[in-house]
Amino acid sequence: MNRLLAFGFGYTGERFCRRRLAAGWDVQVVVRSEETRRSVKAAGARPVDPDDAPEAAAQADAVLVVAPPTDNGCPGLEALGAGLSKRQRWIGYASSTAVYGDQQGAWTDENSPLNTASATGLRRLNAERAWTHACARAGLPLVIFRLAGIYGPGRSALERVRDGRARRIEKNNHALSRIHVDDIVTLLEASLAQPNQHPVYNVCDDEPASTFDVVTYAATLLGVEPPVPEPFESAVMSSAAERYFLESRRISNALARQSLGWRPQYPSYREGLAAILQTHFT
After folding, report:
1. Measured over all CA atoms, what is the biggest interatomic distance in the chain, rounded to whole angstroms?
2. Which domain holds residue 29?
3. Which one of 9, 15, 145, 251 has the fewest beta carbons within 10 angstroms of its own beta carbon?
4. 138: domain CATH number?
5. What's the pLDDT at 12?
């Protein structure tokens, strides 16, 4: 039986683990809280205590790390590093397109410069480098997945509009990429089935867009008036939100398409939001 060890059981990690369980895999998850332990058991996977993580890693055929890095580095690498071995035929690390920083709206592929200046982007970049160094030294099959902005059921513009939390910030030529959580899972599965293709993949849909357009469309689907437009120059927002609008990039998924034959089920936010509305708002 194939065995997966996951470090991180959040929005994306849980979905991937459930798909592996459905495919007949033995799935283990490193747990750091009782709440996560209960969720892992409810899904049918086996919880692993952090102290036992290296041994579990040594026995895994595949490893996926989706937990975010901290200022001190990647907790997944710290917990699993000693147990990683030639047994693994696939090690997936979930990073972020934040490593590219501001590309001034240009199309951005895996060879584009890494211009990140944000704390989030720098943590991701440092974690990527740490994983790359560790796996290169040991000759292990690492694949880094740079995820665009993740959305899906319970985490979309539809919920923000419904709950009165959405804002329509106007900023010329601002665009960022997104990805439906289910499309992340299918890309991870495509890579798992074809390891050793490329060391880095961008994970995004086909159509970068402004938050203004996404919120407008979500309001249209819900049949409500969209929030009043707010010019970026005069909008009051947190420093994190301001950073979001200071970076503009259009991420390309061409490499994943060409190498893995992957196609997003939701090629733009329109298809993704419409599906969420149909399945979770009825």
Report:
1. 58
2. 3-150+180-205+252-266
3. 15
4. 3.40.50.720
5. 97
